[in-house]
Structure formats: C-alpha cells, structure tokens
Amino acid sequence: MPDYGSFYIEQGRVSASMRQNRVWHPNTQMSEWARMDEVVRGDGMYLVCADGTRLLDGVASMWCNVWGHSRRELVRAISRQAATLAHSPLFNLTHGPAQELADKLVGIAPGMHRVFYSDNGSSAVEIAAKMAVQYWANIGEPRSRLVSLQNGYHGDTFGAMSMGQNPEFFSKFKNHMLKIDHIPAPNAYRPVRGHTKQDDAEMCLEAAEKRLAKGDVAALVMESGAQMAGGVQIFPRGYQSTISKICKRHGTLLVLDEIATGFGRLGHMAEYVWQRSVPDIAVFGKMLTGGYATLGATLASKRVADAFLGDFAESRHLFHGHTYTGNPIAAAVALENIRLYARHSLIRRVRSTSKVLGGFAAEIGSRRLVGDVRHRGMVMGIELVVDPQTGAPPRSAQSMNRIVYGIAKKHGVYLRTLGNIIMLVPPLYMDPAHIRKLGAATLRIIDELEKRF
Ligand SMILES: Cc1ncc(COP(=O)(O)O)c(C=O)c1O
C-alpha cells in the first residue's frame, strides 16, 4: 500500500525550479510554456518571481487589479472577514457584507434595484441571460431570442461563449453553441467592406434596428463602452445611447456587460452612465474586488426584478445559484475597495493618469509594425500588422503572446497579448512614473519585434 501521505509531503519539499508544472494554464499552449516564471509575491505595482525578477504588472493581472498588490487595507479587510465569517451561503440566510455591498452597487449603478452574486464574470453574464429569458416567461410574453454583437466577449462557459463571437477562441465549439443572433459591431480600424469609418457605426445601428424590430428578442447583450477582448474596439460616441433607444423602442431588454470596462477602466464608475444608455441588467466583475477575490454581480432594474416576485407555487423565482454566491470575504474586500475609490478620488485620478498613458499613443502608432492604437481611460490596444494595406498580422510558429512575454520580461514588464494586439491595462492606481516606464518599455518591445517581423 503506497504511503500517499509521505509522497505528498516529499513533493511539497521539491524546490520551485525543479517542480514539474502540473497546472493546465488558461488559453495556453502548454508545450510552448514548459517552464513558467513562478510568482511568489506581489509588491505594489510589481509581481515578484521566484528568481527575484520584478515584473511591472502591465495588464493588472488580467484587468482586475486596481491598487497594485498587497494593498494593506484590502489585505486587512480579507483577514478581518475571514476571521469573522469566511463563508456562509445566501441560501435561506443572508449576511452583512452581501447586503451592504448590494446597497453600494445600486448606488454606483443608477436604475438598478437588486443584485445577484456569482463568483466570476462568465457566470455573471450567464445569469444576466437567464434573468432576461425568464423575465419574458414570467410575464407571459413569448420572447426567447438573445442577440449579441459580433466580435464580443463575455466569458468562456458555453452560454457566455455563445453570446460572444471570437472565432479564434470559440471555433472548436461552434456546433455546440446556443442559438444566438449576432449583429455587427462598430470597428473603425476594420469597417465592414464598402463602409467608411463614419458610416460603419450607422450601418451597425441599422442592423440592430432591423433585427430588434422583429419583436422576438428577449435581450440584447453587449459590452459597455468597448469590446475589450475583441481588441479594445472603442464604441464611437452616440452608438451605445442609440442602441439603448432602439432596445426601448422594440421592448427588448438591454444587458450591458461592464465587467472589463466599468469600475473606472474607461474613466467612469458605471460606463453606461457616460454612454447615456439605460440597461435593464448590468454586469460587473473583475475590478469589483480590486483584484483581491473572485466575485461577479448581476444587477437588475426594478421592472426586471419585480417580475420574479409572486407565490412560490407560481415558480417565478430565478432558477440559479452557486455554492459561493456572495462569499463574505469577496463581498467584504469589494466594500473596502469601493471605500478606497472614494477616499482616493480614484476616478478623478484615472482621468488624469489616462492622459499619461494616452501620451504614448502617437509615438507607438508611428512604428512600422503598428497598424492602429486605441486608447481610452486606463487601457490601450496596440494592433500589430505587417502590411498596413491588408492589415495582415505578423505570423510565426510561436504565439505572439509567448514572444512578447519574453521580450517584455527582459524590460521588467509583465504583458499578455490578445493575438496580435498588445494590451496595456495597468492597475488603475498606477502612478505616472510607472505608466511612463510601461509606455517606454512598450516602445522598446515593439522595436525588438520589428527586428523579427
Ligand atoms: C467583458 C467581459 N465579460 C466577461 C468576462 C468573463 O469574466 P471571467 O473571466 O471572470 O469569467 C470577461 C473576461 O475577460 C470580459 O472581458
């Protein structure tokens, strides 16, 4: 009989450099990453690796970090809550952090009335879709179709994938997707053939009007402000507010996914307010906890939430729930995060540091390998192309992400690209000096890439 106890203890003693990586990493060709740098701690704006390398966190640890790492107040909030109540379910019970956070969130998101918690963004979007579909069933109207935008991204679970449309990510699963109609989304860099940058958005709005006019659409699901994973495609001013009006006109619910763009990423707490669009359901995640715990929140208007009320026997309640729904540690750290936003006037600060980041756009855009630079708030998408006429991306056997990671590491920066797009998504609180360091490193990275492509 093998002694599994001592086996695991032995494994635990193996040093980080000798250990075989048994972790299956997300969206990763594992053969390309036989060896991975191991992060041992976070220190402000830096991730510190086992070999002592300090990497400036240029992508806010997948777009969720707000304050940098090891922020004292957030760490304390977590340990305080863990010592008081680490987890109790929201089934039959409630708890203070979930209640207080829901109050705060409806304050941040005008027009919203009730908050449903989950533990990641994909689930939060799935919940939004289920809410929308069940809403129509509850009010006894036969609307069941969902519509979303081409080039969108809402997560990697089947429902979320179906609402998104990213051939590179999802083509392997195309025969298993939910039946969802996709309408064109504005793309100023690559307008639909025959259209100009100006009439591209117009054409997209016409397509939305035409599809929603059929009267069978339960909800239109889209990202708010910009399609982030679609390559930082920033919506032209007026597009989202017109979409909101079209939804109203045809009685379609509007679901706005603010997971990547809300909480200040584009310079506004609720991006939809700035976009003058009125959702029926709004979804938050990522920066909600400052990047310190995993939490999603799906917020519904009173009209939507009230449609779920009634006698139990009517079966109107929302048929959804997760074990860790509204976990108290995640809720407590989200509350502390929101307090810090107010204490540090973070949104005002983002609007000014955004200019420092944006200050690099022209120089980056002048590089031969750069086809387009898109910037708003604290995000910049840099599209690499080898031929500006055709917009063809650089090709190599290795992924662009692997190549850029290696070069960026030499310059002391952590980056993760999206295909041929270099994403700069710093923690919101990053100071101008570090943003300059990130911008300067990016220029050097592109210079090195130009020697290869
Ligand atoms: C707009 C948007 N929605 C949903 C998601 C999915 O969130 P998660 O990765 O937490 O499942 C993402 C993730 O990047 C996103 O950008």
Task: Describe the protein in words.
The protein has two domains: 174 residues, Aspartate Aminotransferase, domain 1, CATH 3.90.1150.10; 271 residues, Type I PLP-dependent aspartate aminotransferase-like (Major domain) (Aspartate Aminotransferase, domain 2, 3-Layer(aba) Sandwich). It is 38% helix and 16% strand. It has 16 helices and 16 strands. The protein is globular, with a radius of gyration of 23 Å. The protein starts with a helix and ends with a helix. The chain binds pyridoxal-5'-phosphate. The site of pyridoxal-5'-phosphate has 14 residues, from helix 5.
Proportion of strand residues: 15-25%
Return the structural class.
alpha/beta
Look at the structure and name the CATH superfamily of the largest domain.
Type I PLP-dependent aspartate aminotransferase-like (Major domain)
Pick out the low-confidence regions: 4-12
Q: Write down how many β-strands occur, each being a DSSP E stretch of 2 or more residues.
A: 16
Profile the largest sheet.
Answer: 7 strands, mixed
CATH architecture of the largest domain: 3-Layer(aba) Sandwich
Average pLDDT figure:
94
Count helical runs: 16
CATH topology of the largest domain: Aspartate Aminotransferase, domain 2
C-alpha Rg, in Å?
23 Å
What is the terminal-to-terminal distance? 57 Å
Order of strands, main sheet, comes to 4-12-11-10-7-5-6
Bound molecules: pyridoxal-5'-phosphate
Number of domain units: 2
Q: Which percent range fits the helix content?
A: 25-40%
CATH hierarchy class name of the largest domain: Alpha Beta
The rough form would be described as globular
